[in-house]
TrEMBL record:
UniProt name for this protein: Sulfotransferase
InterPro entries, per database record: P-loop_NTPase, Sulfotransferase_dom
Record flagged with keyword Transferase: yes
Entry annotated with the keyword Protein biosynthesis: no
Annotated keywords: Transferase
A Pfam entry, by short name: Sulfotransfer_1
Domain named Sulfotransferase: residues: 97-358
Annotated organism of origin: Brassica carinata
EC number: 2.8.2.-
Length: 364
């Protein structure tokens, strides 16, 4: 499995903003804080004083599943994500042929990871359904294609990624502006998956409330919707996230491929072929005859992944059960949740922010 050779290099490699190991000192300091503040401190647990000071200087708002979201490099994210992103930006060394999957959360990242991994590794792991050794049958896609800002950089670790099988495949939620310096090397490719903002919001709302810790109160639909429309969502505002990747895909179509969740749902085979050509591993006629395209589609389908034991009972991202990653997998579920005035508000916002850019969506 690709992740098995990831080794963690000790934190010493990051001189600034390193993890504070002096827990006694932290506890001492905590004694003078009020209980509410201490609850918030837990999400900042393990962050150095310099880092916490830097956090304090950032604009912050109420978070969805943590107490706060901070405005960092122009987008909203959690404190631990900021630490991981800074580490990734500082230490990541791209290699030719690296592939980076980029999304704003709940756009179908898990699906795209499964498809890309299976596609790129089809000569090592035959995707035909009779093959029971395929890694996707026993590992969640997030274990096969790691995020820069989560597992790889947990607690500020600097992993050794050179041993990974080529092409190395990573994922990220960071906006293009914060990723661009890390992908400039010729041959590095980015695949962006975009989902209509209506369904992305509903999916985010369900997911957040399913995985949030008990100490954080649930976000109601109305409250979450208002936050979303004000841009307050992890890695948002959503319109800036989508627009930056969209523009880059128009400017450099050989560098950034822009896919839509709704298109994948409508015609997965031709989108999978498009992805294969973009990644310079097109399907041969013989492969098509042998049914490889169909086998990949089937292996990565919502129904197949959802019923696997690893996705019913496993945990790939710390404290997040895999089962929450597979909810409905449909286009237009928003119709069951948003009131007509809410739909109008979001529609007007999308028109205002994205109208005239050429970026359009299908909502049903
Ligand atoms: P819903 O909550 O609308 O069901 P992400 O992977 O970025 O977290 O996105 C999660 C969304 O993608 C969820 O949407 C989930 O059900 C859907 N999804 C996960 N796997 C999928 C697959 N193989 N095919 C289609 N949709 C999938």
């Amino acid at each position: 499995m690709a992740t098995s050779s990831i080794k963690a290099i000790p934190i010493m490699a990051i001189p600034s903003f390193n993890v504070c190991h002096n827990l006694e000192l932290l506890k001492e300091q905590g004694k003078s804080l009020d209980p509410k503040r201490q609850e918030g401190e837990r999400e900042e647990e393990g962050l150095s004083y310099e880092f916490q000071e830097m956090l304090e200087s950032l604009p912050k708002e109420r978070g969805w599943r943590t107490r706060h979201l901070y405005l960092f490099q122009g987008f909203w994210c959690q404190s631990k994500e900021i630490q991981a992103i800074m580490s990734f930006q500082k230490h990541f060394k791209p290699l030719q042929n690296d592939v980076v999957i980029a999304t704003i959360p709940k756009s179908g990242t898990t699906w795209l990871k499964a498809l890309t991994y299976t596609l790129l590794n089809r000569h090592r792991f035959d995707p035909v359904s009779s093959n029971t050794d395929h890694p996707l049958l026993t590992s969640n896609p997030h274990d096969l294609v790691p995020f820069f800002e989560y597992k790889l950089r947990l607690n500020g670790d600097v992993p050794d990624l050179f041993g990974l099988a080529s092409p190395r495949t990573f994922a990220t939620h960071v906006p293009f502006g914060s990723l661009k310096d890390s992908i400039e090397k010729p041959g590095v490719k980015v695949v962006y998956l975009c989902r209509n903002p209506f369904d992305t919001f509903i999916s985010s709302w369900h997911y957040t409330n399913s995985i949030k810790s008990e100490s954080v109160s649930p976000v109601s639909l109305d409250e979450g919707f208002d936050m979303y429309c004000r841009g307050l969502i992890g890695f948002g505002p959503f319109w800036e996230h989508m627009l930056a990747y969209w523009k880059e895909s128009l400017k450099r179509p050989d560098k950034v491929l822009f896919l839509r969740y709704e298109d994948l749902k409508q015609d997965i085979e031709s989108n999978l072929k498009k992805l294969a050509s973009f990644l310079a591993v097109p399907f041969t006629e013989e492969e098509e005859r042998k049914g490889i395209v169909k086998a990949i589609v089937e292996l990565c389908s919502f129904e197949s992944l959802k019923k696997l034991e690893v996705n019913k009972a496993g945990q790939s991202i710390k404290n997040f059960e895999n089962r929450h990653l597979f909810r409905k997998g449909e286009v237009s579920d928003w119709i069951n949740y948003l009131s007509p005035p809410q739909a109008e508000r979001l529609s007007a916002l999308v028109d205002d922010k994205l109208g005239g850019t050429g970026l359009t969506f299908r909502y049903c």
